[in-house]
Design brief:
alpha/beta; Rossmann fold; Helicase, Ruva Protein, domain 3; 5-stranded parallel beta sheet; globular
Amino acid sequence: MPHKTPHILVTDDERSIRSTLKEILEFEDYIVSTVESGQQALDFLEDNDIHLMFLDIKMQGMDGLETLKRIRDKGLDFPVIMISGHGTIDIAVEATKLGAYDFMEKPPDLNRLLLTVRNALSQQTLAREVKQIKKKLPQLPPIIGESKPIQRIKNIIDKVAPSQSRVLITGENGTGKELVARWIHEKSPRSSGPFVEVNCAAIPSELLESELFGHEKGAFTGADEQRIGKFEQANNGTLFLDEIGDMSFDAQAKVLRVLQENKVTRVGGNSSIPVDVRILAATNKDLKQEIKEGNFREDLFHRISVIPVIVPPLRDRSEDIPLIAQAFLKRLKEQDISFSGVYFTDDGLDALIDRPWTGNVREMQNAVERLGILAPGDAIDAEAVEQILQPADHKSDDLNELAEAGNNFQDFKESAERLFLVRQLEKNDWNISQTAEKIGIQRSHLYNKMKKYNIER
């Protein structure tokens, strides 16, 4: 693809300046157009694409600052170099606030002028390449739905995203708490920074401190090298503490200190490292009840829940179910040609509305994929939904099979224990802490059992 010669627009009401800049820039093989007023510049931009603009500040009629403001209001992002015969710091600051790339005084120094043009065009080329790359990257899925609860969530995201406020996102498993967190980050001024997620329930409490704050080499047995923690990784971005209700009391105290001081100290280290991180947290637990029971710090709760966001379960927005199901099916079609002819009938969508969806949106996503694969024809109708998604009642059969297959009592006991643990983990959406609490054993004990029986999600 041939390289496109940069097109530069010079806007100045002095003929001599226009002529001088045009001559200099054309000598460097740039394409140069000239106009003598802000309004002429705006008219020119209606019909022409340019790569860079020189804009005089003091002009008759519309001045340069007003012209720049209108250019940016139109969404045009090419670099603009302001020029003036009477430059002041205040004007330069104002121009920068409006999005000017640089500010030069008349008459401009030739070497500085050409260097500024080259740097501005290089930066513009890089910015356009980044935009193209971003277009090719997987896009963040939309929050699907038109119900009042979802419209309320979208409105809250739009309001809270531009701020630096901490947000606590609550809701049942599978409702889409992580997606809400990602959209808050995406719409925030930190969107170009990292989004770092920590699942507090999936990390053993004895390792969580190292995971969050990092550690120095030799800090403990097995610390063979320095590790950068999640707080440092999220610097200038967003840290998402998922399942924060499962964080140990000791870790809660250390997180609270970081939120107060905006500094972390690695395990085994002495120096404090400044961090600039926005905290988003999520849980499926009632933290106020956890506070009453002595499981969660009240001071940390008030720190993280400046803005509370409650994500509704699917049963409270059943009118969104057809939209969600069709969106998931469309996504499958884009990823796999084998789904290309599959579609939902009206009665098939009605059948989905009538289901309980205890696992919420996550359960529905899996169900749509199962229906797309197992439906007898291309049409997913009510009969297909009932047959394929009918909960299988084979639990007693599983135990009978274990009893028949086992050669001795120990084998049967271990197989039954493994089956029980898998069933309980599935029921609690593989939340380790919640499962351990429900079945009455310590989390570390459950981890050991999972390791023993090679249980993985």
